[in-house]
Design goal:
436 residues, mainly alpha, single chain, flat
């Protein structure tokens, strides 16, 4: 059997077991036993699953795919001891979606970039749901007989290929034969008492613990695994069958749509952004001594370290999020061909500069809190989030001044820094013997 066909059959056979493992040991795993091991095993088999499907189509994933495989492995390995299990849970899903895109070179932009949300939507929604029938189509294609070759008079007859066994057919036959075998044994025990005693002795030697709850949960998992297998296989197979032409057309449409949305004058953008810039400057005047006291390692008299670190931290994070949202709205709706673009760009840079200041203040609060009370995963998670916002603001400033899209760098920074911080958290967690 040729390699591509073997890989395709193996991918089909893995679809349901992978889906069952996902439902039972990933999606609805409420136990605290071997959590990391289960996540690691699932990631390993998902990677194998994807490789079989992609290579079964005669494709070779680009080298960038292995970066995302590595990120998935690190996040799974630090699932319990990393920054936060819910962030790791979300991150693993997003990585799985993105792996389907990267493995088949289906980026809208031709590489990782500012359209990453559209790429994730393409994999998790468009490819996955439109590819639900793929597994049935692939099984039918494998079972299809080869075309009959017509022999031309005077030419030697073509070599007759021997029929080879089908792994899918073998599995189906075994699944069907097991209950038939049990029925046959039951009928024979009714005929011969000695044979019935022998079977009973064999069964007595096998401990069977019938648990109604376990059986009910297993039936639910088996049922949910079926649509899940169609979804997973559909997402990966539909992506593997795509040549990227649909994505190129869709990208052209997205760019045209974005261009059609750019109707706001840069003057209006500059005025709106300027209002926020002035607002923050006034705030710095009122709260400067309080905000920047952590840099000197001293606290306002009326605050303890815990109160100082917590007071205003989440609000500052919200301000940084608002500033990034302002930038995104302006970048999508501002007409850059109209007069006033330089003023708007200056206000954006000023706004992002203030975001960097807010991020620095937030980080100093966390650093002071950390120095007083030590490590917890939540504190490291807060530090990582602050670094991501600060890096985003810096990238916006660079993009605005250099007129170059830096979103690719920010995406890789965000993903890599999360993996690194997860490893650091795990090392500290193990060194300290476990900290909540």
């Amino acid at each position: 059997m040729e390699m591509n066909k073997t890989a395709k059959i193996a991918g089909i056979c893995l679809a349901y077991p992978i889906a069952y493992a996902y439902v039972k040991y990933f999606l609805f795993d409420f136990s605290e036993e071997y959590v990391t091991v289960k996540k690691l095993l699932f990631v390993f088999f998902f990677i194998l699953f994807n490789e079989l499907i992609v290579r079964g189509r005669g494709k070779t994933p680009p080298k960038e795919t292995y970066f995302w495989y590595g990120i998935m492995g690190i996040v799974a390995a630090t699932y319990e001891t990393g920054l936060a299990d819910w962030v790791s849970f979300l991150g693993l899903h997003l990585c799985a979606f993105y792996v389907a895109i990267v493995s088949n070179r289906l980026w809208y932009e031709g590489r990782t970039g500012s359209f990453i949300i559209a790429d994730l939507f393409n994999a998790g929604i468009i490819k996955a749901f439109s590819g639900i029938p793929k597994i049935f189509m692939d099984i039918a294609a494998l079972g299809r007989k080869p075309k009959v070759q017509v022999q031309i008079p005077g030419e030697p007859a073509p070599a007759v290929k021997k029929a080879k066994g089908s792994a899918v057919g073998a599995v189906l036959i075994i699944l069907v034969m097991i209950p038939i075998f049990c029925i046959a044994v039951a009928l024979l025990t009714e005929i011969n008492p000695l044979f019935a005693e022998a079977v009973e002795d064999i069964l007595d030697g096998i401990e069977i613990n019938i648990n109604a709850v376990w059986w009910f949960e297993t039936i639910i998992y088996l049922f949910l695994a079926f649509p899940t297998s169609l979804y997973l296989y559909g997402m990966l197979a539909k992506s593997a069958d795509s040549d990227g032409e649909d994505e190129k057309k869709a990208f052209t449409g997205l760019v045209n749509w974005r261009q059609s949305c750019r109707k706001i004058s840069p003057v209006v953008s500059a005025v709106v952004t300027g209002l926020f810039v002035v607002l923050y400057l006034v705030f710095f005047v009122y709260e400067g001594s309080y905000l920047f006291s952590a840099f000197a390692g001293r606290l306002p008299e009326e605050f303890t370290a815990a109160e100082y670190a917590r007071r205003g931290f989440f609000e500052l994070t919200g301000i940084m999020f608002i500033n990034m949202l302002i930038f995104l709205l302006i970048s999508y709706f501002e007409n850059r061909d109209l007069p006033g673009r330089k003023g708007s760009a200056a206000m954006i840079c000023a706004l992002m500069g203030e975001s960097v200041v807010f991020a620095t203040v937030s980080f100093s609060k966390l650093a002071l809190y950390y120095s007083r009370f030590g490590y917890t995963p939540k504190r490291l998670l807060a530090m990582w989030g602050t670094l991501v916002f600060a890096a985003g603001a810096v990238m916006v400033i660079i993009s605005t001044l250099k007129k170059k899209d830096c979103s690719r760098i920010w995406i890789y920074f965000t993903v890599t820094s999360f993996a690194v911080m997860s490893v650091i958290s795990s090392v500290l967690y193990l060194m300290l013997g476990g900290v909540d």
